[in-house]
Design a protein that fits this description.
The complex is a heterodimer of chains A (191) and B (255). By secondary structure, chain A is mainly alpha-helical. Chain A has 8 helices and no strands. Chain A is flat, with a radius of gyration of 18 Å. Classes of the chains: A mainly alpha (191), B alpha+beta (255).
């Protein structure tokens, strides 16, 4: 990846939101490959993938002003928007075969990026993942790392589809709860 | 976790949304439970899911196709920056607000033209003819087409103005029946043969709030356009559709 010409200490999304001229170029250069790679994990068709990436960047421009570096890294914020749109795309495809363009907004209600959100760093995440049951960790790996769908995971593991869904959901909640607890402990220790 | 507890159930549905596995029924249940419990969703579980999903992506980023990077850059510059011209990003609430208030809509449409052309700082409402003249003066290759009403909508008429260079435009519509947004909405489709896909580009969903005076409707094309050949208005279910069956074609503007 080439180094952007206008690197400053200010987050690029903040610069986009402030109307800085070069910021959109920098943002595309920095995060285009991330968005593209993420979209390709969900969408096989090249044309659809390219259209989706254009829609994702249109949404990134609109939401740049809501970015808060205290809550998430830029790549996580952009990844969240991209993932949301990709999930929307798949859902629409499943429900409306032949579907082409998505709407202007993600169908996800726009939840607030609240200050209570936990900025997840890799180390905290790794140690929290270790607290999950082995079976759940295996499902997480298949889903998040290998990119398998729920039905594919059910096929691979022999688990009923409903069980796969439930374990992934509850695993995600358990992971969040563990990170919360860890965060609270850490804060108390610091103060 | 007791899944019959409404708060636990709500949390589980939020997790399902973050994982992208909600059924239609569960989506409805999530909204309903949120209202009943008076809870506003936050993005915590979604952020966590995104962080997990991004880990392998960050390790194996692939370059975008060269053509795509160029198109994104071109569109970014054509669109402009939010800080310099906030009106160029028609958000859904603003869009609806514009259409509910034709004069406000007109002021906003005029402001889009005025801001984008850097002609003046005034936001005073202008007549449609003057806005059209401003857009024409900024783009000598402006695409202008007349809408012709079809079938039961024969009384519909109007004009569409589109600038490829600025990737923006608007419609001036008259004679289209007032709609009840709870029952049906109008949707614009733009036919652009230069795009890869044969499917028309979604130009946005809109309402007609009152009979009589012309309504100005900004175009909210979801994708970059190049020399569009036709503009089609259909009547669809509330919220619009992703692919029109063209059961109710209201008006057509083409070469």
């Amino acid at each position: 990846m080439s180094t952007p010409a206008h690197v400053t200490s200010k987050p690029v999304l903040t610069r986009v939101a402030a109307g800085e001229t070069s910021a959109m170029n920098v943002c595309i250069n920095l995060y285009g490959p991330l968005v593209w790679t993420l979209v390709r994990r969900y969408v096989n068709n090249n044309t659809s993938s390219e259209d989706l990436v254009q829609e994702i960047f249109a949404e990134i421009w609109k939401k740049a002003a809501t970015y808060d570096p205290a809550i998430a890294s830029e790549s996580t914020f952009i990844g969240m928007i991209a993932r949301r749109r990709a999930i929307d795309f798949i859902r629409h495809q499943l429900r409306n075969p032949g579907f082409e363009p998505l709407g202007a907004e993600s169908s996800f209600p726009d939840p607030a990026l609240v200050a209570s959100s936990i900025p997840y760093d890799a180390e905290a995440l790794k140690s929290s993942l270790e607290t999950l049951p082995d079976e759940t960790r295996k499902l997480f790996h298949l889903f998040f790392y290998d990119g398998f769908t729920h039905p594919e995971i059910a096929d691979k593991t022999g688990l009923p589809l409903g069980t796969v869904k439930t374990r992934l959901r509850r695993g995600l909640i358990a992971l969040r709860d563990h990170l919360r607890r860890t965060g609270i402990t850490h804060n108390k220790t610091v103060s | 976790m007791n899944p019959s507890d409404p708060v636990n159930r709500y949390t589980e549905l939020l997790a399902g949304r973050a994982l992208g596995d909600l059924t239609l029924e569960e989506e409805r249940e999530l909204v309903l439970l949120g209202k009943q419990l008076g809870i506003s969703p936050d993005a915590e579980l979604e952020l966590l899911a995104a962080t997990l999903a991004l880990e392998p992506v960050l390790q194996s980023r692939e370059p975008m196709p060269a053509g795509l990077a160029a198109r994104l850059l071109q569109k970014a510059h054509l669109i402009g920056l939010p800080g310099s011209s906030p009106i160029i990003y028609p958000q859904v609430p603003a869009w609806k607000n514009i259409l509910l208030h034709p004069m406000t809509g007109w002021a906003a449409a005029a402001a889009v033209v005025i801001l984008s052309l850097v002609l003046t700082q005034t936001e005073a409402p202008l007549p449609p003819e003057q806005a059209a003249a401003l857009l024409r003066s900024a783009d000598k290759d402006l695409i202008e087409r007349r809408f012709v009403g079809l079938g039961e909508f024969k009384q519909a008429s109007g004009q569409v103005l589109w600038s490829d260079a600025q990737q923006r435009g608007f419609m001036i519509l008259t004679g289209i029946p007032v709609n009840d947004p709870r029952k049906a909405q109008y949707q614009l489709w733009i036919v652009d043969p230069t795009r890869d896909s044969d499917a028309p580009v979604d130009g946005g969903v809109f309402d007609i709030p009152s009979n009589g005076s012309p309504v100005v409707v900004p175009i909210a094309a979801k994708l970059a356009l190049s020399n569009p050949q036709a503009f089609v208005i259909t009547r669809e279910h509330p919220g619009g559709v992703v692919k029109s069956k063209q059961e109710h074609v209201v008006a057509l503007a083409k070469n």
